[in-house]
Amino acid sequence: MSYKSHVSSQDRLFSAIEVRQIDRNDLWRALKRGTSDFFDSPTHPVFLTAIYLIVAAMVALFGLGENPLPLIFPLVAGMALIGPLAACGIYELSRRKEKGLDYAWWHAFDVLSSPSRPAILLMGAILAVLFFCWMQTAIALYGVYFGDLNPGSLTVLMEQVFTTAAGWQLLISGCAMGLLYSAVVFVMSVVSLPAMVDKQTRFAQAVGLSLKVCLRNWQTLMLWYVVVAALMWVGVLTFFFGLAILLPIVGHATWHLYRMLVNREVGAP
Q1: What local confidence, expressed as pLDDT, does residue 255 receive?
Q2: How far is CA 38 from CA 9, 90, 165, 214, 252, in A?
Q3: Which of 29, 96, 104, 177 has its CA at a distance of 20 to 30 angstroms from the CA of residue 151?
Q4: 135 close to 78: Cβ distance less than 8 angstroms
């Protein structure tokens, strides 16, 4: 079969994929199954999370300049923009467990040889660009409200943000922009990355499927977005130790949510 015929066949298969409608009870079932996956073998997600945190911190610090204190909060919030990419290894582990295959932590790196690797790499590049844009947006917002004023310590920064009118304006505008960035990433990736791990999938197909899922289940997935955001902030507020548990659980749960949302029999290669 020629490449062109193969692509046309894939397009027909993915256009026929059935998108199911779910409710809030399905969210709790997915979260329960994700928790079960994590505690069945908790070592590998912790390992993957450690890598994610280190890489995210290094990427962010690369462009923070001489005084990174004003960008601590944007950095923490921005980790959610590249989190879906880090979860690809977790999706692979849940996939292997589901099929009765060995799911030792090193199999998370099998995703690097996935037939959908070009699509996954493209998504990673887009998420990295969005992360960079978010950090530049944060720098610009800080400049609007505080100019060249740089806090000398974290205590001064906290007073600056939480006890001044300019600080509260910065918080409100920053949260609004952060919500916009994170919503875009959520809609793009909620089932696209699991679909890439699951099947041989092109980027446009996977993102189109994710958009289709969000349009059909927007109320339920809005609740899922809030739940995920809340869990991530709980992880952050526990000095990132909570992320070592919560991020993998959310990753596993997202895989099970994908299975509930998408009929895997239709369009399977």
Answers
A1: 94
A2: 36, 9, 43, 26, 7
A3: 177
A4: yes
